[in-house]
Design brief:
The protein has 149 residues and is mainly alpha-helical. It has one domain: Winged helix-like DNA-binding domain superfamily/Winged helix DNA-binding domain (Arc Repressor Mutant, subunit A). The protein is 54% helix and 5% strand. It has seven helices and two strands, in the order αααββαααα. A two-stranded antiparallel ribbon has the order 1-2. α1 crosses α3, α1 crosses α5 and α2 crosses α3. The radius of gyration is 19 Å and the shape is elongated. The N and C termini lie far apart (40 Å).
Length: 149
């Protein structure tokens, strides 16, 4: 199984917002710089996360993006399933005509069971389980690179 880029970027944003000082918000430009993701990609990600009440966005001078309580209380498996935006993420036997469909092929059933096991396993963990002990070190090289240019 491979997660799509949208899910990857969304999880990075949620991890960053969760670990970042939770009392302050951050901007799209900050997220783009820290996570090395194009701002245009982040706009779509943050809009989706806000629609699903996983982040809170505020416009204006004192605005920004903060993580919501819902995001912190949702299991990683449920977050991944929501972000993948697909009810049959592994295989769709009807998207491209498959000759085995009418012969009781069990592949989709096996893959669906494995996917559900993955989601259930990931639901044993939360964003708080992804906390880093030395958060400031992760971005120290970015500051040094910026100062050297």
């Amino acid at each position: 199984m491979k997660l799509n880029h949208f899910t990857d970027y969304s999880l990075r944003v949620l991890i960053y917002l969760n670990q970042n000082d939770k009392t302050s918000s951050c901007s799209l430009d900050e997220l783009s710089g820290k996570l090395d993701i194009l701002r245009n990609h982040l706009i779509k990600v943050v809009q989706f996360l806000a629609q699903k009440d996983l982040v809170i966005t505020k416009r204006g001078k004192n605005g920004g993006i903060t993580i919501s309580e819902k995001a912190n209380k949702t299991g990683l498996g449920s977050l991944i399933h929501l972000l993948e935006q697909d009810d049959s993420p592994i295989i769709n036997c009807f998207a491209k005509s498959c000759v085995f469909v009418s012969y009781d092929c069990k592949l989709k059933s096996f893959l669906d069971t494995a996917y559900q096991a993955f989601i259930d396993s990931m639901n044993q963990h939360y964003l708080s389980d992804l906390a880093f002990n030395h958060w400031e070190i992760i971005f120290a090289n970015q500051k040094n690179a910026t100062n050297n240019t």
